[in-house]
Amino acid sequence: MGIRKGSHGAGTYSIPGGHLDFGERSLAGAIREVEEETGLILKDAQVLRLCPYLDSLFTKEGKQYITLYFLATEWEGKLELLEPHKCEGSELFG
Fold first, then answer.
1. What is the pTM assigned to this prediction?
2. Which of the four CATH numbers 3.40.190.10, 3.90.79.10, 3.40.50.300, 3.40.350.10 does domain 2-47+74-90 have?
3. Residue 41's closest CA among 89, 74, 16, 19?
4. Which residues are bridge partners to 14 per DSSP?
């Protein structure tokens, strides 16, 4: 988890995430986002939960999100801060 900077949720902990690239499958997007943000390569990710939260409505921006959560119990690599403009720092939690 990392502490968000500059956008919604600034100053709060958040898991890695982002938007899917055009035509990208959700699991591939989750694996890509984690690697881009943390340097970790997920090995066994699977869908954990689908959450169409009401707080994912961004009325001002005219956007609405459905959040997919994935769980991975195995990964390779070393945790790094690869997007310091978006995140203050990252930690692994058990």
1. 0.80
2. 3.90.79.10
3. 74
4. 2
